[in-house]
Specification:
The chain has helices spanning about 5-30, 35-50, 50-65, 75-95, 105-125, 135-145, 150-165, 170-190, 205-220, 250-260, and strands at about 195-205, 220-230, 235-245, 265-270. It is of the alpha+beta class. Strand 2 (about 220-230) and strand 3 form a beta hairpin.
Amino acid sequence: MNKQEIKNFILITIGSSFLAAGVVFFLYPAKIITGGTPGLGLLAHYLTDISIGKAMLAINIPLLILGKGYLKTSFAIRTIYAMLVTSIMVDLLVYYVDFPVIKSLLIATLYGGVCVGLGIGLVLKANASAGGTTIIARIIASKTQLKPGSVIMILDAIIIISVGIIFKNFEGVLWSIISIYVSSIVIDKIVVGGISEKLVNIVSEKTDEISMAIRNELDRDGTIVSGQNLSREHDKSIVFVVINVKSIIQLRELVLGIDKDALMIIMEASEMVGSSRRYQ
Protein backbone atom coordinates (compact mmCIF):
# COMPACT_ATOMS: atom_id res chain seq x y z
CA MET A 1 0.00 0.00 0.00
CA ASN A 2 1.52 3.33 -1.08
CA LYS A 3 1.65 6.54 0.98
CA GLN A 4 -1.32 8.10 -0.82
CA GLU A 5 -3.50 5.08 -0.11
CA ILE A 6 -2.48 5.13 3.56
CA LYS A 7 -3.39 8.82 3.66
CA ASN A 8 -6.75 8.00 2.07
CA PHE A 9 -7.59 5.42 4.74
CA ILE A 10 -6.54 7.81 7.53
CA LEU A 11 -8.82 10.51 6.08
CA ILE A 12 -11.66 8.00 5.79
CA THR A 13 -11.21 6.95 9.42
CA ILE A 14 -11.24 10.55 10.65
CA GLY A 15 -14.12 11.49 8.36
CA SER A 16 -16.23 8.48 9.35
CA SER A 17 -15.63 9.34 13.03
CA PHE A 18 -16.84 12.92 12.52
CA LEU A 19 -19.86 11.65 10.58
CA ALA A 20 -20.74 9.22 13.38
CA ALA A 21 -20.23 11.91 16.05
CA GLY A 22 -22.52 14.34 14.24
CA VAL A 23 -25.28 11.75 14.01
CA VAL A 24 -24.97 10.37 17.56
CA PHE A 25 -24.14 13.48 19.60
CA PHE A 26 -26.34 16.07 17.87
CA LEU A 27 -28.91 14.77 15.37
CA TYR A 28 -30.10 11.56 17.02
CA PRO A 29 -30.90 13.04 20.47
CA ALA A 30 -32.77 15.94 18.85
CA LYS A 31 -34.62 13.59 16.43
CA ILE A 32 -33.29 15.55 13.44
CA ILE A 33 -32.86 13.61 10.20
CA THR A 34 -29.94 14.15 7.86
CA GLY A 35 -29.61 12.96 4.27
CA GLY A 36 -28.09 9.82 2.78
CA THR A 37 -27.48 6.57 4.63
CA PRO A 38 -27.26 8.21 8.09
CA GLY A 39 -30.76 9.62 7.54
CA LEU A 40 -32.09 6.26 6.34
CA GLY A 41 -30.38 4.59 9.32
CA LEU A 42 -32.05 6.98 11.75
CA LEU A 43 -35.42 6.45 10.07
CA ALA A 44 -35.02 2.65 10.25
CA HIS A 45 -34.03 2.93 13.92
CA TYR A 46 -37.13 4.97 14.78
CA LEU A 47 -39.41 2.53 12.95
CA THR A 48 -37.88 -0.82 13.99
CA ASP A 49 -35.64 -0.06 17.00
CA ILE A 50 -32.67 -1.69 15.22
CA SER A 51 -29.40 0.05 16.13
CA ILE A 52 -28.46 2.96 13.87
CA GLY A 53 -25.12 1.45 12.87
CA LYS A 54 -26.63 -1.92 11.95
CA ALA A 55 -29.40 -0.18 10.02
CA MET A 56 -26.85 1.85 8.03
CA LEU A 57 -24.87 -1.30 7.23
CA ALA A 58 -28.02 -3.20 6.23
CA ILE A 59 -28.94 -0.36 3.85
CA ASN A 60 -25.44 0.05 2.41
CA ILE A 61 -24.64 -3.59 1.63
CA PRO A 62 -27.41 -4.19 -0.97
CA LEU A 63 -26.80 -0.75 -2.49
CA LEU A 64 -23.09 -1.54 -2.83
CA ILE A 65 -23.89 -4.88 -4.49
CA LEU A 66 -26.33 -3.11 -6.82
CA GLY A 67 -23.73 -0.51 -7.78
CA LYS A 68 -20.66 -2.75 -8.03
CA GLY A 69 -20.66 -2.51 -11.83
CA TYR A 70 -20.48 1.29 -11.63
CA LEU A 71 -17.59 1.51 -9.14
CA LYS A 72 -13.87 0.99 -9.69
CA THR A 73 -12.30 -1.67 -7.46
CA SER A 74 -10.10 0.75 -5.49
CA PHE A 75 -13.02 3.14 -4.97
CA ALA A 76 -15.27 0.27 -3.86
CA ILE A 77 -12.70 -0.97 -1.32
CA ARG A 78 -12.34 2.48 0.22
CA THR A 79 -16.12 2.86 0.26
CA ILE A 80 -16.62 -0.48 2.03
CA TYR A 81 -14.07 0.59 4.64
CA ALA A 82 -15.89 3.92 5.14
CA MET A 83 -19.23 2.11 5.54
CA LEU A 84 -17.83 -0.30 8.12
CA VAL A 85 -16.02 2.34 10.17
CA THR A 86 -19.03 4.67 10.19
CA SER A 87 -21.47 1.94 11.23
CA ILE A 88 -19.19 0.61 13.97
CA MET A 89 -18.39 4.10 15.29
CA VAL A 90 -22.08 5.05 15.42
CA ASP A 91 -23.00 2.07 17.60
CA LEU A 92 -19.90 2.43 19.79
CA LEU A 93 -20.64 6.10 20.44
CA VAL A 94 -24.31 5.39 21.20
CA TYR A 95 -23.57 2.65 23.73
CA TYR A 96 -20.25 3.67 25.29
CA VAL A 97 -19.97 7.47 25.20
CA ASP A 98 -22.02 9.56 27.60
CA PHE A 99 -22.23 12.87 25.71
CA PRO A 100 -23.98 15.85 27.37
CA VAL A 101 -27.54 16.38 26.15
CA ILE A 102 -27.89 19.39 23.82
CA LYS A 103 -31.18 21.10 24.68
CA SER A 104 -31.04 23.72 21.92
CA LEU A 105 -32.43 22.49 18.59
CA LEU A 106 -30.52 25.24 16.79
CA ILE A 107 -27.17 24.17 18.24
CA ALA A 108 -27.93 20.48 17.58
CA THR A 109 -28.92 21.25 13.98
CA LEU A 110 -25.92 23.45 13.17
CA TYR A 111 -23.24 21.37 14.88
CA GLY A 112 -24.76 18.14 13.64
CA GLY A 113 -24.73 19.50 10.09
CA VAL A 114 -21.13 20.70 10.43
CA CYS A 115 -19.89 17.36 11.80
CA VAL A 116 -21.73 15.34 9.15
CA GLY A 117 -20.50 17.67 6.38
CA LEU A 118 -16.94 17.53 7.70
CA GLY A 119 -17.07 13.76 7.85
CA ILE A 120 -18.50 13.26 4.36
CA GLY A 121 -16.13 15.90 2.96
CA LEU A 122 -13.07 14.06 4.32
CA VAL A 123 -14.37 10.74 2.98
CA LEU A 124 -14.90 12.30 -0.46
CA LYS A 125 -11.45 13.88 -0.30
CA ALA A 126 -10.06 10.38 0.14
CA ASN A 127 -11.80 9.40 -3.12
CA ALA A 128 -14.37 7.21 -1.38
CA SER A 129 -18.05 7.40 -0.57
CA ALA A 130 -20.06 7.04 2.62
CA GLY A 131 -22.39 4.87 0.52
CA GLY A 132 -26.14 5.01 0.26
CA THR A 133 -27.55 7.76 -1.91
CA THR A 134 -24.16 8.46 -3.52
CA ILE A 135 -24.16 4.99 -5.09
CA ILE A 136 -27.79 5.34 -6.20
CA ALA A 137 -26.94 8.76 -7.65
CA ARG A 138 -24.09 7.30 -9.71
CA ILE A 139 -26.36 4.62 -11.15
CA ILE A 140 -29.21 7.01 -12.00
CA ALA A 141 -26.83 9.66 -13.40
CA SER A 142 -25.20 7.07 -15.69
CA LYS A 143 -28.59 6.24 -17.23
CA THR A 144 -30.20 9.70 -17.33
CA GLN A 145 -29.35 13.34 -17.90
CA LEU A 146 -29.67 14.08 -14.17
CA LYS A 147 -26.54 15.15 -12.33
CA PRO A 148 -25.47 13.09 -9.28
CA GLY A 149 -25.86 16.16 -7.06
CA SER A 150 -29.46 16.62 -8.22
CA VAL A 151 -30.27 12.95 -7.59
CA ILE A 152 -28.82 13.13 -4.07
CA MET A 153 -30.86 16.26 -3.36
CA ILE A 154 -34.07 14.55 -4.52
CA LEU A 155 -33.37 11.43 -2.46
CA ASP A 156 -32.57 13.49 0.64
CA ALA A 157 -35.82 15.41 0.18
CA ILE A 158 -37.76 12.12 -0.02
CA ILE A 159 -36.12 10.91 3.21
CA ILE A 160 -36.92 13.98 5.31
CA ILE A 161 -40.43 14.39 3.87
CA SER A 162 -41.11 10.72 4.72
CA VAL A 163 -40.04 11.38 8.30
CA GLY A 164 -42.34 14.39 8.49
CA ILE A 165 -45.30 12.36 7.22
CA ILE A 166 -44.63 9.30 9.40
CA PHE A 167 -44.09 11.23 12.62
CA LYS A 168 -46.35 14.18 11.75
CA ASN A 169 -43.52 16.55 12.67
CA PHE A 170 -43.32 19.39 10.16
CA GLU A 171 -41.03 21.42 12.41
CA GLY A 172 -38.58 18.52 12.46
CA VAL A 173 -38.54 18.54 8.65
CA LEU A 174 -37.59 22.22 8.66
CA TRP A 175 -34.76 21.61 11.12
CA SER A 176 -33.59 18.68 8.99
CA ILE A 177 -33.47 20.87 5.87
CA ILE A 178 -31.25 23.35 7.71
CA SER A 179 -28.95 20.54 8.83
CA ILE A 180 -28.61 19.14 5.29
CA TYR A 181 -27.96 22.64 3.91
CA VAL A 182 -25.20 23.24 6.46
CA SER A 183 -23.68 19.83 5.63
CA SER A 184 -23.62 20.61 1.90
CA ILE A 185 -21.80 23.89 2.49
CA VAL A 186 -19.16 22.22 4.66
CA ILE A 187 -18.70 19.40 2.12
CA ASP A 188 -18.08 21.91 -0.68
CA LYS A 189 -15.59 23.88 1.43
CA ILE A 190 -13.65 20.75 2.41
CA VAL A 191 -13.38 19.25 -1.06
CA VAL A 192 -12.29 22.37 -2.97
CA GLY A 193 -13.88 25.36 -1.30
CA GLY A 194 -16.64 26.26 -3.72
CA ILE A 195 -20.01 25.61 -5.30
CA SER A 196 -21.23 22.38 -6.87
CA GLU A 197 -19.75 22.97 -10.34
CA LYS A 198 -16.16 23.90 -11.11
CA LEU A 199 -14.38 25.06 -14.24
CA VAL A 200 -11.15 23.12 -14.68
CA ASN A 201 -8.36 24.00 -17.12
CA ILE A 202 -5.77 21.26 -17.65
CA VAL A 203 -2.48 22.02 -19.39
CA SER A 204 -0.57 18.90 -20.41
CA GLU A 205 1.41 17.28 -23.20
CA LYS A 206 -0.94 14.30 -22.95
CA THR A 207 -4.26 16.02 -23.54
CA ASP A 208 -5.55 13.27 -25.85
CA GLU A 209 -5.15 10.60 -23.14
CA ILE A 210 -6.58 12.88 -20.46
CA SER A 211 -9.57 13.83 -22.62
CA MET A 212 -10.39 10.19 -23.34
CA ALA A 213 -10.10 9.31 -19.64
CA ILE A 214 -12.43 12.17 -18.66
CA ARG A 215 -15.01 10.98 -21.19
CA ASN A 216 -14.79 7.32 -20.16
CA GLU A 217 -14.27 7.61 -16.39
CA LEU A 218 -16.26 10.73 -15.51
CA ASP A 219 -18.78 10.75 -18.37
CA ARG A 220 -18.04 14.41 -19.09
CA ASP A 221 -17.28 16.28 -22.27
CA GLY A 222 -15.20 19.42 -22.61
CA THR A 223 -13.18 21.53 -25.01
CA ILE A 224 -9.57 21.31 -26.17
CA VAL A 225 -8.02 24.73 -26.85
CA SER A 226 -4.76 25.05 -28.82
CA GLY A 227 -2.22 27.72 -27.96
CA GLN A 228 1.42 28.62 -27.46
CA ASN A 229 3.65 29.56 -24.58
CA LEU A 230 4.61 33.22 -24.07
CA SER A 231 7.76 32.96 -26.20
CA ARG A 232 5.75 31.24 -28.97
CA GLU A 233 8.37 28.49 -29.08
CA HIS A 234 6.13 25.62 -27.96
CA ASP A 235 2.61 24.59 -28.93
CA LYS A 236 0.28 23.75 -26.08
CA SER A 237 -3.16 22.23 -25.66
CA ILE A 238 -5.56 23.04 -22.82
CA VAL A 239 -8.46 20.84 -21.79
CA PHE A 240 -11.42 22.88 -20.55
CA VAL A 241 -14.05 20.92 -18.61
CA VAL A 242 -16.91 21.62 -16.17
CA ILE A 243 -17.03 19.09 -13.34
CA ASN A 244 -19.11 18.49 -10.22
CA VAL A 245 -17.34 19.40 -7.00
CA LYS A 246 -17.64 15.83 -5.69
CA SER A 247 -15.68 14.53 -8.70
CA ILE A 248 -12.75 16.94 -8.33
CA ILE A 249 -10.62 14.51 -6.30
CA GLN A 250 -11.26 11.73 -8.80
CA LEU A 251 -10.40 14.08 -11.70
CA ARG A 252 -7.18 15.17 -9.99
CA GLU A 253 -6.05 11.57 -9.47
CA LEU A 254 -7.01 10.68 -13.03
CA VAL A 255 -5.05 13.58 -14.57
CA LEU A 256 -1.95 13.19 -12.40
CA GLY A 257 -2.00 9.44 -12.99
CA ILE A 258 -1.58 10.13 -16.72
CA ASP A 259 0.74 13.14 -16.47
CA LYS A 260 2.28 13.99 -13.10
CA ASP A 261 3.54 17.32 -14.52
CA ALA A 262 0.10 18.45 -15.68
CA LEU A 263 -1.15 21.88 -14.57
CA MET A 264 -4.72 22.03 -13.22
CA ILE A 265 -6.48 25.35 -12.62
CA ILE A 266 -9.81 25.11 -10.76
CA MET A 267 -12.19 28.08 -10.92
CA GLU A 268 -15.71 28.89 -9.76
CA ALA A 269 -18.64 28.22 -12.08
CA SER A 270 -20.88 30.94 -10.70
CA GLU A 271 -23.55 30.38 -13.34
CA MET A 272 -24.02 27.64 -15.91
CA VAL A 273 -26.64 26.88 -18.56
CA GLY A 274 -26.81 23.51 -20.29
CA SER A 275 -25.00 20.26 -19.54
CA SER A 276 -21.37 19.20 -19.55
CA ARG A 277 -22.21 15.50 -19.65
CA ARG A 278 -20.55 13.48 -22.40
CA TYR A 279 -22.27 13.64 -25.78
CA GLN A 280 -23.67 10.34 -26.96
